[in-house]
Design goal:
The chain is mainly beta and 392 residues long. It has a domain at 47-72 and 285-392: Methylamine Dehydrogenase, Chain H (7 Propeller), CATH 2.130.10. 3% of the residues lie in helices and 47% in strands. It is built from 1 helix and 35 strands. The strands form 9 sheets. The protein has a 4-stranded antiparallel sheet, with no helix packed on it. Strands 4-5-6-7 form a 4-stranded antiparallel sheet, with no helix packed on it. The protein has a 4-stranded antiparallel sheet with strand order 8-9-10-11, with no helix packed on it. Strand 22 and strand 23 (265-270) form a beta hairpin.
Length: 392
């Protein structure tokens, strides 16, 4: 592992002075994988598991599809108030009718979009590659603010405010009507920052943010810290091994918030007071989702796991999707839905992981977890297709 020494000299890690206010370094999960591969003399990258013929134990129908342009892993659709908000990397932001897929409005910002979309159903927010936080209402730009640091997490629009988690591990709050800055809450920055979407959600009257390997409860009115709970603790002998950023999405049921720390652990926390209910070692790199009984996640090798929400004990495990580049899961109805890097959407039984059916979009990779829009399951592909299926 000598290649990990002198980490700041590695190709693939970029200093972002001027992009992060405290000069942290940005590293992607792909770079970490490349570094670890370079440090070993092991076999070639495993091939994706071959799939058995589709089970087709449930019927689905494609309800509608739309197009927003080529996308990337930090452009996740958002479904709220009967609309699906989506963005393409080249600058298109769209609100689609969740029932029909027709445009409610569409706007081209004419500049690349880095992160999005956040919305409360009225106001939508994205962040451009130039670090501009841009808000949109009914297809018209309302205001924009230049952020002092990059962001990899979609803005949260809630309570007539827009909250942003930037890569220097700072949470910023802005007035939703004017863009005026309301408060800033900062935490010490580690040398490395994961270039992957993190955690930023509202739980009752508390704003919950993932800061390094911890979930922190903030007062949304002034940014003061209400509680601070660990998901995982940094360990290891180098900066890559100590990187334990919380990754999104997270699973919330009432005050129970369950989250994953990158390649370290999954934990459930009571957001009422910040008490850790349980934490379990886990090697996944994407977020989790669940219901009031189970929490679901995918490991970095493609195993799909379920944990008991109250205790963290194992529920079930599926091995047949290994090495297929799985997204985070989405629990909906009686199934768990997840996409893969080969363009398929897998629907598994929530009870035991049995395959229920398999869906195909446009053949390009599905990079982020599916979302639920009414009774429709919605995914967005690398090629920018937005697809919605309904059960028959």
């Amino acid at each position: 592992m000598s290649a990990l020494r002198g980490l700041r000299g590695l190709r693939g890690l970029r200093g972002v002075r001027g992009g992060l206010s405290r000069s942290a370094w940005v590293v992607s999960g792909a770079v970490i994988a490349l570094v670890l591969t370079a440090c070993s003399s092991g076999p070639e990258k495993p091939k994706p598991a071959q799939l058995a013929p589709v089970a087709a134990l449930m019927g689905t129908t494609l309800a509608w599809s739309s197009q927003v342009g080529a996308s990337h892993a930090m452009l996740a659709p958002r479904a709220v108030s009967g609309r699906v908000f989506a963005a393409g990397g080249s600058g298109t932001v769209v609100a689609l009718d969740a029932a029909t897929g027709k445009d409610v409005w569409r706007l081209n910002l004419a500049q690349p979009i880095a992160v999005g979309v956040g919305s409360d159903g009225d106001l939508a927010a994205v962040i451009t590659r130039s670090n501009d936080l841009v808000t949109i209402r009914e297809g018209k730009e309302i205001w924009r603010v230049r952020l002092p640091a990059r962001s990899f997490t979609a803005p949260l629009v809630a309570g007539k405010r827009v909250f942003v988690l930037t890569a220097d591990r700072t949470v910023r709050a802005f007035d939703g009507q004017t863009g005026a800055r309301l408060w800033v809450q900062s935490r010490p920055a580690e040398p490395l920052v994961l270039s992957q979407g993190g955690a930023l959600i509202a739980v009752g009257d508390t704003l919950v943010a993932g800061l390094a390997g911890r979930l922190v409860g903030l007062n949304p009115l002034n940014g003061s810290i209400r509680w601070d709970a660990p998901v995982a603790t940094s360990r290891g002998t180098n900066e890559v091994e100590r990187l334990v950023d919380v990754v999104g999405p997270v699973s919330r049921v009432g005050n129970s918030v369950c989250a994953r720390a990158y390649s370290a652990a999954v934990a459930c926390i009571d957001a009422g007071g910040g008490t850790v209910a349980w934490a379990r070692p886990a090697q996944g790199t994407t977020g989790v989702h669940g219901d009031d009984r189970l929490v679901f996640g995918t490991e970095s090798d493609g195993r799909v796991l379920a944990w008991q929400r109250t205790s963290g004990e194992s529920g079930w495990q599926v091995d047949r999707l290994k090495h297929r580049g799985l997204t985070a899961p989405m629990a909906v109805g009686r199934v768990v839905a997840l996409g893969d890097s080969l363009g398929l959407v897998h629907l598994l039984s929530r009870e035991d992981g049995t395959e229920m059916t398999r869906l195909t979009a446009d053949g390009s990779a599905i990079l982020v977890a599916p979302v639920l829009a009414g009774d429709a399951l919605v995914v967005q592909t690398r090629n920018g297709g937005v697809f919605a299926w309904r059960p028959q």
